[in-house]
Amino acid sequence: MSSAQKKHSQHCRSAASLPAIPDPGPAAPIVTSKGGRVLIDIYETARRVGRHHLTLYRWKESNPDFPRPIRVSPGRIAYYADEVEAYINNRPRT
Fold first, then answer.
1. Integer angstrom CA distances of residue 16 from 5, 9, 22, 57
2. Domain limits at 59?
3. What average pLDDT does the chain have?
4. How many structural domains compose the chain?
5. The pLDDT of residue 34 is above 90
6. DSSP 17
7. Residue 65 resides in a domain
8. How far is it, in rounded angstroms, from Cα 92 to Cα 90?
9. In this structure, what CATH number is given to the domain that contains residue 31?
10. In the chain, is it the N or the C terminus that has fewer CB atoms within a 10 Å radius of its CB?
11. For position 25, what pLDDT does the model report?
């Protein structure tokens, strides 16, 4: 075994004995206030309405009843929490 292989082997053994880093889970949703209204990100919105976040992108064009998103930054959208809750509450009961 070469010295480089020995170093690598020792490094791998020492790394294996380190405590595992806990998985932080999904990123925390954006919860912020804009003019006194709470904004939630698309992932939190999807969780609340029980749909996948990609469905919400489709709904922007095809579902006129669903709240319109707010562009938070060039690559991120959010929804007003009160509009999402109103949408949920106005859905027909089954």
1. 16, 11, 15, 42
2. 27-94
3. 78
4. 1
5. no
6. T
7. yes
8. 6
9. 1.10.1660.10
10. C
11. 47
Q: Residue 22 region, left (φ>0) first, then alpha (ψ -120 to 50), else beta?
A: beta
**How many distinct helices (H) and strands (E) make up the chain?**
4, 4
Specify the amino acid at residue 18: L
Other CB atoms within a 10 A radius of the CB of residue 27 amount to 8
For the question of whether the overall pTM of this predicted structure is more than 0.90, the answer is no
Instruction: List pLDDT tens digits, range 44-70.
Output: 999 999 999 999 999 989 999 999 999
Strands (E), 1-94: 31-34, 37-41, 70-73, 76-80
Mean pLDDT, to the nearest integer, of 16-32?
A: 54
Q: Which of 17, 39, 21, 19 is nearest to 29 (CA)?
A: 39
Q: Are the C-beta atoms of 2 and 8 separated by less than 8 Å? A: no
**88 has pLDDT over 90:** yes
